[in-house]
Specification:
The protein is 41% helix and 13% strand. It has 490 residues and is an alpha/beta fold. The protein folds into 3 domains: 101 residues, Winged helix-like DNA-binding domain superfamily/Winged helix DNA-binding domain (Arc Repressor Mutant, subunit A, Orthogonal Bundle), CATH 1.10.10.10; 254 residues, 3-Layer(aba) Sandwich (Aspartate Aminotransferase, domain 2), CATH 3.40.640.10; 106 residues, Aspartate Aminotransferase, domain 1, CATH 3.90.1150.10. An 8-stranded mixed sheet has the order 4-11-10-9-8-5-6-7, sandwiched between helices. The structure holds pyridoxal-5'-phosphate.
């Protein structure tokens, strides 16, 4: 058999996998060499017969790869004279230089410092934080409503909709807030979002100027702090005591333009903001021309007494932006939440949403509207509250009474998690590491503090436990495993 003629350019290193499309692989290999300069402009590609012989593939395959390169402008044919790489030299760079890229923008640099930890994946385990009892969600009902909507959607709802969100859903949210939370608002004040996190992030984008001071609870919900910091805010941590955010400290530090708070159930300590502090906070906003972002992420979960009215219900000056979410009643991946805005801000927020993403996807909004209108939502809230309460009871009843260096569990009247203090950071790490070895998730309270906190390190130590994520039996098993891991008896 005749040996193939030597090639005019170096094509060594091309390896084709016979199990994959050969023409595509050859096209990609040649394109890569053209783009990184190994095949220079003006170089003549081998004749298809020679290349086919060298790579032991059919000539047809080579021709298909050449045709693709030709169609995309990487090579040109000169009649009767072969195939040549086009002149791209001014934009072709060796790969290392391409990868370096331009200097990162301020926004990119801020994101490098302030970003969320990777989410915990997989089915929830005891004692994952932030996750409701979504094993109880009525998926069949949801599927039926969803099928009904998509079987014959109204054409009026399939174009570009209102950036503030589906009108019917906003009306139902307003009615729900009025009846269940004592918050009276007009649907025109509501903007539907992709969960509470996006609502907080919108507040950061629209209310914060680079360099503004923003007060956040310390310890607090770090993802909210990150959203404000990425918008250019200078975070000012404010202490939390038995009555919630320390409003005297907020006054003392001065200069804040916005305060982010979780009044119903402080995240992560679990304290409820007292009425006196609520009134002081509203007064602060009025006197300092400030804004309050009220994150009511788990306000539906209250186990005794009537819930205190949201701050937004007490606000007479249009200073409070109320954040609500369906993700703690349904499930986090639903990504559906809302903002209730002071009337003067509603239009600006809707405009911003229009620029970001036009509006939230219609299917989820429409199905949630039906879910609420047909009474499923209220029923589900009751079911979820009951489940969270009995899961809380399982944790409180089964928790070991004496754990060295760990305070007793507090009374838990609200929310989906609890927080318990530990004597030192070293002990906190030890307890968490031992739990993790037996497959139990515990969060470190020390992770919820701002990094420049003045609080002594050992006073930041504690454990944060979500109690709603798994049923009572799994909670019991986790507690047994913890006893073994920690060497405690009862
Ligand atoms: C305090 C707090 N706010 C907001 C959120 C985010 O809620 P969503 O899933 O609706 O974005 C969480 C989630 O855990 C939270 O803990």
């Amino acid at each position: 058999m005749a040996m193939p003629a030597p090639l005019p350019v170096d094509l060594s290193g091309i390896r084709l996998d016979p199990a994959q499309g050969l023409a595509r692989q050859l096209y990609q290999a040649l394109r890569e060499r053209i783009l990184d300069g190994r095949l220079a402009g003006g170089a003549r590609l081998p004749a298809s017969r020679d290349l086919a012989g060298l790579l032991a593939i059919s000539r047809n395959t080579v021709n298909r790869a050449f045709d693709q390169l030709y169609a995309e402008g990487y090579v040109e044919g000169r009649v009767g004279a072969g195939t040549y790489v086009v002149e791209l030299s001014s934009v072709v760079r060796p790969p290392a230089q391409v990868a370096a890229g331009p200097a990162p923008s301020v926004a990119l640099q801020r994101l490098q410092q302030h970003h969320l930890a990777a989410p915990l994946e997989g089915a929830p385990r005891a004692f994952r934080v932030g996750v409701p009892a979504f094993d109880l969600f009525p998926f069949e009902t949801w599927a039926r409503l969803s099928a009904r909507f998509w079987r014959k959607p109204s054409p009026a709802r399939l174009g570009y909709g209102d950036p503030a969100g589906d009108r019917q859903l906003r009306e139902l949210i307003a009615a729900y807030l009025r009846n269940s939370r004592g918050l009276h608002c007009d649907p025109a004040q509501i903007v539907v979002t992709c969960g509470a996190q996006q609502a907080i992030s919108l507040c950061a984008q629209l209310l914060v100027q680079p360099g503004d001071r923003v007060a956040v609870e310390n310890p607090g919900y770090r993802a909210a702090g990150h959203a404000f910091a990425v918008a250019g805010a200078e975070l000012q941590g404010i202490a939390v005591d038995g009555e919630g955010l320390d409003t005297a400290e907020l006054e003392r530090v001065g200069g804040c333009r916005l305060a982010y708070v979780t009044p119903s159930h402080q995240y992560p300590t679990g304290v409820t903001l007292s009425l006196a502090r609520r009134l002081e906070l509203l007064d602060w906003a009025e006197c300092h021309d400030g804004w309050i972002v009220e994150d009511d992420y788990d306000g539906e979960y209250r186990y005794s007494g009537t819930p205190l009215a949201p701050l937004a219900a007490l606000d007479r000056q249009g200073r409070v932006l109320y954040v609500g979410t369906f993700c703690k009643i349904a499930f986090p991946a639903l990504r559906l939440g809302y903002l209730v805005l002071p009337p003067q801000l509603a239009q600006a927020f809707a405009r911003r949403r229009a620029l970001d993403m036009r509006h939230s996807e219609i299917g989820t909004q429409a199905v949630m509207a039906e879910f609420i209108a047909a009474g499923h939502f209220q029923r589900h809230i009751r079911r979820m509250r009951g489940a969270a309460r009995s899961r809380r009871d399982a944790l409180l009843a089964g928790w070991p009474s004496e754990i060295a260096g760990c305070a007793p569990l507090p009374a838990v009247e609200a929310g989906l998690h609890l927080c318990v203090r530990v004597a030192s950071l070293a002990r906190e790490r030890e307890l968490i590491a031992a739990a993790s070895r037996v497959g139990v998730e515990l969060n470190a309270l020390s992770d919820y503090w701002l990094s420049d906190s003045s609080t002594a390190p050992d006073q930041r130590a504690g454990l944060v436990l979500g109690f709603a994520a798994v049923p009572e039996a799994a909670i019991g098993e986790a507690l047994r495993a913890l006893r073994g891991a920690w060497g405690v008896r009862d």
